[in-house]
Amino acid sequence: MKDGFLLIDKECDYTSRDVCNIIAKIFDAKKVGHAGTLDPFATGLLIVALNNATKALSYIEGQYKTYEATLLLGSKTSSGDLTGEVIETKEVPDIKKEQVIDVFQSLIGESEQTVPITSAVHVNGRKLYHYAHLNQEVELPKRTIDIKTLELLEFDLPVIKFKATVSKGTYVRTLGETIAEKLNTAGHLTALRRTEILDLNVESAKKIKDLTPDCLINISEIVQKFLPLMYLPNEVELKKARHGGKLSLKLFPEKLDTFCVIDDKKTAIAIYKYSELGYYECVRGINREDN
Fold first, then answer.
1. Does residue 39 have an active-site annotation?
2. Of 9, 13, 18, 39, which residue is the catalytic one?
3. For the domain with range 4-63+199-222, which CATH number is right: 3.40.1350.10, 3.30.2350.10, 3.40.190.10, 3.10.310.10?
4. 65-197 falls under which CATH superfamily?
């Protein structure tokens, strides 16, 4: 069974699940998952995990992600992007570049964002987009998001292209609508591309058609981008880790929060975290003997 990660440059019109299904067939993988959904109209970096690598996905999904987006001012759509129907048109005022930069600065930091009804978030046991398809009203949940950076790339009215680094759960199409509203007009995205997750860049990613077995990346090589790797030379302690047992705090000179145990072949064994009860506890097995 092949374990590992793939860095995919997703193309337009594929869902993230489409990509996983195609890869499952190419690599004959039993389990395939991804970190961070990209809408069908969006392109760019999709981290895909095969088999045991899927067990580490939750530690990747929570990372900040960087996007490049193209915002068309003057019209709002039902989806916040070019795939929806125009539901509002509004005159585009004589906006200056400095005004856009000021709006961007006002949006930096934490804020509340309303989840769009076209999303796959569950409310009352049903995905929000089902309510949209049935034209049913539903109270939309709100999330606390964090916009780390927001940079103006191009300014040519009625088009604004920007780059944003945002926390998990941030909808960039909703961010685009917010930018337009703050500029006293309406707007929707016509393009969206994810370019980075931490220091993983889309330039290192492959299109599905270009995939080969050599593209598969070792689990620990990707996990180390998000968690410290701790090598256990002691076979007794390593055996404990392989069975999800408790590890002594004395194993490492400095107290660690969360880390990944590896063996001498750099195989990711399990993810551990500090316990106030006086030991490190296993929170996720990756290559464990009891899996």
1. yes
2. 39
3. 3.30.2350.10
4. Pseudouridine synthase (3.30.2350.10)
